[in-house]
Specification:
The complex is a heterodimer. Chain A has helices at residues 32-47, 65-80, 92-101, 113-121, and strands at 2-6, 14-18, 21-25, 29-30, 52-56, 62-63, 84-88, 108-110. By secondary structure, chain A is α/β, with parallel strands linked by helices. In chain A, helix 1 (32-47) runs parallel beside helix 2. By secondary structure, chain B is α+β, with helices and mostly antiparallel strands. Helix content of chain B is 57%, strand content 8%. Chain B has a six-stranded antiparallel sheet, with helices on both faces. In chain B, a hairpin with a 2-residue loop joins strand 5 (123-129) and strand 6. In chain B, helix 12 (347-357) runs parallel beside helix 15 (398-422). The longest helix of chain B has 59 residues, at 150-208. The chains are: A alpha/beta, B alpha+beta. Chain A binds chain B through residues 32, 64-70, 72-73, 75-76, 93, 96-97, 99-103, 105-106, 136, and chain B through 2-3, 6-7, 10, 13-14, 17-18, 21, 34, 37-46, 66-67, 142-146. The structure holds fe (ii) ion (FE2) (2 copies). One fe (ii) ion (FE2) is lined by residues 248, 276, 301-302, 330 of chain B.
């Protein structure tokens, strides 16, 4: 089943649902405005019963501090509802940031959307694998 | 130090974000919430709060909080000793996971478990500005589970100073707003006092002339209605009310017998009665009014646009518009009230008179405004019935005068401006 509720270019946040997994596209610059939109999409999808979320950063060049803070809120919300959360297509700079700040301890960074869906659908996904670009990361 | 440069870069851009949030956000609570978000996002901290110290209440209050549940107390008592201890800890802050380094910290932590361990905060950072405690920034542990490094502390300290300045500025703005409100109230009081005084003056003027009691107050009311209909602003309208109240103030220096004469004043005595315009101007010029031109309006309220009036025989545009409004208001009241030597005229006659004299005695634009205002009262388009209520019920036959007013407006608008223009 594929359901598309909203879509747009790199500047807008959009989302769709595929096989019970909500995929949220975070937009070009994850700041206060786009961050709040992303959070709203995630919250709405969780409220509608989705128990797995993928945030796709393929259009995302930069995540600023408020963007990070909002993503922390998304992690909280997902944990609260016992939903699994996964980030994908994170560019190198942002991946370094997430690793440095410790976000990658709590969220699996998948290289592609397909990989994210595979990871989420895997029954034994309890122990998230680690992104390959992060040799120093513990989990 | 593997991520040293990235960390520094992220912290540096975060500081810029913070500056922008504090400068751009006008609402104080929203500003602090955004600032807290920046701080939390800078070091990936999931729990945090900013409390503000309110000196007058001797308490701290949560302005913004994240990740600590919703059952926060609205305020926590905070004594002078607490404030002193907070200032002693200083803007460098105190990490709870470190052994309490000073006596002040130990004492404070003991008295306020809620602000320390209970909420799981790791960093307690007083926001201090000009040696005064403004609030406290409380932060939970980092998501990376690493302890706060010296760089982290420096960054948070710098952000704390930014937030402190933001709170301080918002306080100053709030204080200025309160002062401005107080001034406005004071000004309103003064205006009310001024109006009361003016009204008392008006009553005193009318008291001298027993046949025209209430005249000044009614003229003030008509002036207000006309000025509003002409689209004047509130202040100008208020000025017109005052002008109406005071236009005949010069009568206090005119012989009482002339004012109270039961007969039409004969030509010999007219100059004495007419003196009231110049006398009024001179009296009113001695007073500093909050509204401009009131003395001039009083001086010229018996001028005619065709130049046949007094005291200066001005014509058309030489006469201030306020004086022209006064002329119509004054004449309307004179025509609608009984005089000892003359019964009041019928409304039908008055409307005819206004039309015939538009461009001669009266400024056509003012006549139209007055006719329109009266028509709106008749049709119910106006909110109140100020003119109709001033006149007695049996005096005005609404159905009769409605078409006359419509015709008056139409005829003036179609030709009387050119008639007025011919008069020089
Ligand atoms: Fe007069
Ligand atoms: Fe008068």
């Amino acid at each position: 089943m594929e359901e598309t509720l909203s879509s747009g270019g790199p500047e807008t946040v959009s989302s769709r649902v595929e096989g019970g997994v909500a995929i949220i596209y975070a937009g070009g610059y994850l700041n206060k405005i786009n961050g709040e939109r992303t959070k709203r999409e995630c919250r709405d999808r969780l409220q509608n019963g989705c128990r797995a979320l993928v945030i796709n950063f393929s259009d995302t060049e930069i995540v600023n501090s408020i963007g990070v803070s909002i993503l922390l809120g998304v992690i909280d919300a997902a944990e609260e509802r016992e939903a699994r959360l996964c980030f994908c297509n994170v560019n190198n700079h942002t991946a370094q940031l997430f690793l440095m700040l410790g976000l990658a301890r709590h969220v699996y960074l998948a290289p592609t959307e397909e990989a994210a869906l595979v990871w989420l659908n895997a029954a034994n996904a309890a122990a998230p694998p680690v992104i390959s670009t992060t040799p120093t990361q513990r989990h | 130090m593997h991520y040293g440069i990235e960390k520094f870069l992220h912290a540096f851009t975060s500081l810029a974000d913070l500056g922008q949030e504090i400068a751009d956000t006008r609402d104080r609570k929203e500003m602090v919430e955004s600032a807290l978000q920046v701080v939390l996002g800078t070091l990936a901290i999931r729990r945090g709060a900013v409390v503000e110290y309110v000196e007058e209440k001797g308490s701290v209050q949560f302005i913004a909080a994240r990740g600590i549940g919703s059952d926060l107390p609205p305020e926590i008592p905070f004594t002078d000793t607490d404030v002193k201890d907070s200032c002693e800890i200083g803007a460098g802050g105190l990490s709870v996971s470190e052994p309490h380094s000073s006596n002040a910290a130990v004492r404070l932590a003991k008295r306020h478990p809620l602000l320390f361990e209970n909420l799981g905060y790791d960093l307690f950072m007083p926001l201090i500005m000009r040696d005064k405690l403004l609030g406290i920034l409380l932060l939970g542990p980092k998501m990376s589970e690493e302890p706060f490094s010296a760089l982290d502390r420096d960054v948070i300290c710098s952000m704390g100073r930014h937030i402190g300045v933001g709170i301080y500025n918002h306080r100053l703005i709030a204080e200025v707003e309160v002062r401005a409100e107080e001034n406005q109230r004071l000004y309103d009081d003064l205006r009310a006092t001024y109006q009361d005084t003016v009204r008392a003056f008006a009553a005193a003027i009318d008291f001298k002339d027993k046949y025209t009691r209430g005249h000044s107050e009614r003229v003030g009311r008509y002036c207000e209605i006309i000025a509003r209909e002409m689209g004047w602003n509130d202040e100008q309208v208020e000025g017109m009310i005052v002008a109406g109240y005071l236009h005949d103030i010069g009568k206090i220096v005119v012989d009482r017998d002339i004012i109270n004469s039961p007969y039409k004043i004969d030509a010999k005595l007219l100059p004495e009665l007419n003196r009231h315009t110049i006398a009024g101007y001179e009296i009113l010029s001695l007073i500093k009014h909050p509204f401009a031109d009131i003395p001039l309006m009083a001086r010229h309220h018996h001028e005619r646009v065709d130049g046949g009036g007094y005291p200066d025989g001005l014509t058309g545009d030489q006469i201030p518009m306020g004086a022209k409004i006064l002329t119509v208001a004054d004449s309307f009241d004179a025509m609608t009230t009984d005089r000892p030597y003359k019964r009041r005229r019928t409304m039908e006659e008055i409307i005819k008179d206004l039309g015939e004299n538009a461009g001669k005695q009266f400024e056509p634009e003012v006549v139209v405004a007055f006719a329109r205002a009266l028509l709106k009262e008749i049709t119910g388009e106006a909110q109140g019935k100020e003119i109709l209520n001033t006149l007695s019920d049996d005096y005005v036959d609404i159905e009769n005068i409605k078409p006359l007013l419509i015709e008056l407006i139409r005829s003036i608008e179609s030709n009387s401006y050119s008639a007025a223009a011919n008069v020089t």
